[in-house]
Amino acid sequence: MTAHTPGPWSDPVTGVCPVAETLRLLGGKHGPTLLHCLTGGEMHFLELSRALGGISRKVLTEQLRVFEAEGLISRTPKQDARRRVAYALTPRGQALGAIIVQLYDWSTARV
Amino acid sequence: MTAHTPGPWSDPVTGVCPVAETLRLLGGKHGPTLLHCLTGGEMHFLELSRALGGISRKVLTEQLRVFEAEGLISRTPKQDARRRVAYALTPRGQALGAIIVQLYDWSTARV
Question: Cα–chain-centroid distance for residue B54?
Answer without folding.
Answer: 18
